[in-house]
Amino acid sequence: DIFPKIKDRVDAILVHPVNRGKGAALKTGFAYIRDHFPKARGVVTADADGQHRSEDIVAVARGVVAHPKALVLGVREFAGDVPLRSRFGNFWTRWFFFLMTGLMIRDTQTGLRGIPTGLLGRMLGLEGDRYEYEMRMLADAKYHEVEPVQISIATVYLDANATSHFHPVLDSIRIYWSLFHFCLSSVMAFLVDNGVFTVSLYFFYPHFHNSGAHFARTKDVLLAYIIARLVSANLNFFYNRFFVFHSASTKRSFFQYWGVVLAIASLSYFGVMGVSLLFHVRNGLMITVVKIAVETVLFILSY
Question: H helices of 125-217, where?
Answer without folding.
Answer: 132-140, 170-204
